[in-house]
């Protein structure tokens, strides 16, 4: 991977802090759960979580070992923790960040080709789960009902599984079926509900926390909303893995995002979601830009639209996305809303998203924000490192972001966020 930052003191500081955080995660801590507690809410299941637990730390140490900045002993230690319990292979919570797909993704990133029999077993589990999810989704479409967020989102749904397959098995038939589903997801659903045909195909009555949401909503975010499917569709299209209607589906999502883009003195921004009253009014509740995070803010949405512009060879869309990102990162008011260093909704997520956006950018304007954002990440990571160890919500994600920026690694760990 090309270097976007000169060999400056900030890079040395990033490498040093990445090493320090990684060293603090050499050994898994003692289990913090009751040994006989196998309930769904037990923290023992965090081991299979890329977001919160051992799986995310395996990715950190695996990438560092592959780039010559660590050894394999901590990888094996956290691998044992990750696989201590039977791997979850069904249920609404199982997806890219948890259970069989998360563990399969972890091995493909951290230990590529090193555990072929175990990887094959996981691949079969992922294929069974994906088949069940796809059958349920197509049956839902056939009866014209609304999708759950965890049917299609990046965290738990088919977009996340598609991201894993695009990285791990890009030539497989299973990825084709997932892409066919994502194309159908973008088509309007003639549902007998108040939203009707005004709503897009991904209109959902499920809230991000899994509970019901009266009247439904269209979620725009990268984690639980339509930006996740857009990124997967765009990345697949860009790499020549296409299905009928693929380009039109990308354009349909982009047109929706264009419709709900809001002007601002510091550049355009997007709401987190569109509720029924806003859909009927044709405009969102008045407000301003959200926290500029990966999960729901301008950086995640801009990166998804940048990928769409690249895939469709639409320089205007790509440039508009990059302009939105740079104007957001030049606005102190928006940046002041970021209060933690994590990947999901903090400085590491902004830095990682910016890093990959800069690699693809049409000009150097995006890359000019790398150094100040990295400095902010270093400052917040030193002052307020999260208690959790995992990649998305914890220290492993901070360390891996710092490591990637300091070394220019080309190992595709950021598939976990679908920004690479």
Secondary structure topology:
Blueprint: H1 9-23, H2 54-66, H3 73-82, H4 100-110, H5 116-142, H6 149-152, H7 158-168, H8 173-185, E1 204-206, E2 212-219, H9 227-238, H10 246-260, E3 273-275, H11 276-281, H12 298-311, H13 315-329, H14 332-335, H15 347-360, H16 370-383, H17 395-407
Antiparallel strand pairs: 1-2, 2-3
Helix pairs in contact: 1-16, 1-17, 2-3, 2-4, 2-17, 4-5, 5-8, 7-8, 7-9, 8-10, 9-10, 9-12, 12-13, 12-15, 15-16, 15-17
Would you mind describing this structure in some detail?
The protein has helices at residues 9-23, 54-66, 73-82, 100-110, 116-142, 149-152, 158-168, 173-185, 227-238, 246-260, 276-281, 298-311, 315-329, 332-335, 347-360, 370-383, 395-407; strands at 204-206, 212-219, 273-275. It is 50% helix and 3% strand. With 420 residues, the protein is mainly α. A 3-stranded antiparallel sheet has the order 1-2-3. α9 packs parallel to α12 (298-311). The protein is globular. 51% of the residues are buried.
- Give the terminus-to-terminus CA distance: 12 Å
Order of helices and strands: HHHHHHHHEEHHEHHHHHHH
Structural class: mainly alpha
Q: Could you give the order of strands across the largest sheet?
A: 1-2-3
Overall strand count: 3
In a nutshell, what does this entry contain?
Zn(2+) binds at residues 295, 344-345. The chain has helices at 9-23, 54-66, 73-82, 100-110, 116-142, 149-152, 158-168, 173-185, 227-238, 246-260, 276-281, 298-311, 315-329, 332-335, 347-360, 370-383, 395-407; strands at 204-206, 212-219, 273-275. It is mainly alpha-helical and 420 residues long.
